[in-house]
Design a protein that fits this description.
heterodimer, A: 608 residues, alpha/beta, 23 strands, B: 351 residues, 13 helices
Amino acid sequence: MNAPDGWKHQNAVPPTDTAEPDYFHKVVDCQWACPAHTPVPGYIRLIAQGRFSDAYMLNRQSNVFPGILGRVCDRPCEPACRRDRVEDEPVAICRLKRVAADHKDDITDRLPKKPAKTNGKRIALIGAGPASFTVANDLAPFGYECTIFERFGEPGGLMRTNIPAFRLPEKVLSEELGYILDMGVELKLNSPVSSMKALLDEGYDAVFVGTGAPKGKELNLPGRDQSENIHIGIDWLESVAFEHTKAIGKKVLIIGVGNTAMDCCRTSLRLGADNVKVMARKPRAFFKASAWELEDAEAENVEIIVNHSPKEFVVDNGVLKGMLFETLEYVLDEKGNITKQTVTGEVVIECDDVVLAIGQDNAFPWIERDAGLEFGKWDMPLVDEVTFQSTREEVFFGGDAAFGPKNIIWAVEHGHQAAISIHQYCQQKLVTTRLPNGVKLAPTKMGMFEWSFSNSFDAAERRIMPHVELAKRFKDLGTEVELGFTAEQAATEVERCLNCDMQTVFNAPLCTECDACVDICPVECLTMTEPAAENVLREALEIPASNTEQALYVSPALPLTSRVMIKDENICLHCGLCAERCPTAAWDMQESEIIINHVEDMVPGASS
Amino acid sequence: MTSFAKPSINLKNAKRNKLGLTRRDYEGAMSTLCAGCGHDSVTACMAKAFFELSIEPHRAVKVSGIGCSSKTTAYFLSEAHGNNTVHGRMPSVATGAAAANTELTYIGVSGDGDSLSIGLGQFAHAIRRNVNMLYVLENNGVYGLTKGQFSASSDIGSRSKKGEENLSPPIDPVSLGLSLGATFVARGFSGDRAQLVPLIKAGLKHNGFALIDIVSPCVSFNDHKGSTKSYAHTFQYYHPAVHADYVPMADDIKTSYEDGEAVPVELHDGGMIMLRKLDKDYDPQDRAAAYAQVAKRAAKGEIITGLLYVDESQKDMAAMNKMTATPLNALPYESLCPGAASLADLQNRYR
């Protein structure tokens, strides 16, 4: 073919290396966004097939607590979900996880048993939260003697003390912690560790600190010390969880608008409050709480008041009367950043109780500063971001204790990584050694018009989680609000998943350049064009590939014209029509399995 | 799943035309042609051209004959009028429809079998009458629907899938069109949509009969080594001579073309076809020279493409025959059927 004029080959993008493990991983946006890299489309397909136990087990490999996280995960996967390219709502990934957990059979015989003999290595884990439990989960099956020290009389950490039972039933929590304890993990309750040095003297081979960020932030304003009715949010939730606190006043103000604030306001309603206001200093766009938690709180008639900055607790003769706020106005720039704030007035809002939910800090009063651990900025221990090792080689950190408050799924991932380091350390190997991620591809074509996954696009909208009716919710603290998806809802919701792990794999030498794939693509994300720089290629598509955070696939030169096949990974629906219409199978749909390594993969012969 | 469907999807960033429609609104039923068929590309180009021209789908008329090519009218513009006629008889039906309503956009889709064998007479006379339509001839050199016999456009020496050599000389629709007086003669290739979509747009906007012969490989029966209508052969011997763009009235022509780069051809609707010569020896406005060039290139085995001849000065069928500009369905009954007395008057004139 005579090259049409205007072909420019300078700065042409080299062909995409799809063998690089992160390439296909990034296409599975949900999995990439998940700190623990849970293979979401894979377990959703298992749920679709009714294989709930299999879905649960696949889930458990990476996130350890599918039942818990299926209810209370921060779900970084959902904002990343590719479904939002074609409609507004992502797949209800989190709640589908719960479907697997709720409907699984007894899976205890599929979990590792307590090993017949130990390997002689003793590991102390401080704090019985998700991070420590994950470390124990990964290490105990290989003979490590894990001992968890917990200051309270129940395990779970913030999952028990800070997340109210109406969101996370005690039964679910205990079940999943129990699976790990049954692997031969020793749990020492009511055993606060008050001295790191003393613990180290006990000769453990390694120590893991998973003590969270247990100190609620204080709000030192006039009147703070004059009333008993001003509470620190996480302490108050903890006191409610252990049934030390059973009531609160009628009118309650919650200061702060993060997820803890949402738990505080909804808990107040269950302890007798009937007028709960959440007070926010900034406009709604700046709220830290997840959208769905705000939604659930507002559904319970909690009022959220913006642009009010607390100034003073109004206390009269030791009785809390209300709180004085400054009302604020903000000027925002085009990007939505605050450029100016003005005080427009003051207002007193009446209340009987105030709950402070403005954040939490780490606190390590029990680690002596001469215990061999270096501390850095904000009095935080120096922890390696990859190995989670502190400056004292046998001490490792994870969860909120490592780098400050994050969330449960991050704590789990920290736990996995710290467990690898502890294993390496105990085996006298370099803790920095990590197995690289990998990717495995498997064919999915079953026959004419037939693939091993449900490839037809389903236009169904996100299913709405059914809730216990409002009138019945507040009777006791333990009534779980979310009922879980019905069978019909689950069956519909699974079909919304676009199976982003079913990769479009292109074999350039087979291409006849017939355009069939380009024509059939329902989202017009393919084309053949002359090689060029990436920004030029992105514009060459019928719908320009404007999301530069998502990859643009570029093939090697095509056999007949030396053009390249390009594909915008961003809007691909993984429907397989390109492969279906390809006369030479140059396009194929292949299932990608992202290999993420845990301790079991580091132990020769142990990997399943 | 026993078959598959192209899902309808509301893409948030899909382009919209002046009517607010997306390209997907110009699609039709799922193709049942073989995967990789050139005709499907032509269909996609057709949908794109109509989309870009912002033609209301229900103001278009699709007509076709018999054959793989003729099936494709089902695969684009599902909202348009359509008639899948008798083998080779599409031009007559199109002529009748164009006579009844001059306000619609007519598009005929045919193949080398339908147009060059059984329908050759019909094809020739539609050109002669200069029916105001776009006539697309999807040319793959074989009867694909009956499993790959040579067609009237097969080149001498081209081999069938089983190795048999064609010995009969081909009928070239482009040369035929030029010699019959066609006012718009073009050749495209299903594999080059950058050229084909503007050609289709120009053809739709041309006043009169616009012929586009499109090399559209048969992936099942004529895409092998030895075939002169395969993807590989066409890409190898492809020779674009003149690129044509349709530029609507409203657009500023000068911004897109540098001085002397393109020759404008003014159209009836006020728009322009901009001719850009890729082969400096080629003159698309000189019929005799064009005929000579086409023959010369063909003798060298080259496949010359682009808008090979255009003449906007000729009257179309409606003008030649002084036909009413009002669609017949909009004429008052008294004009359409003036009654027995008028008929008697008319007959008296011939007595």
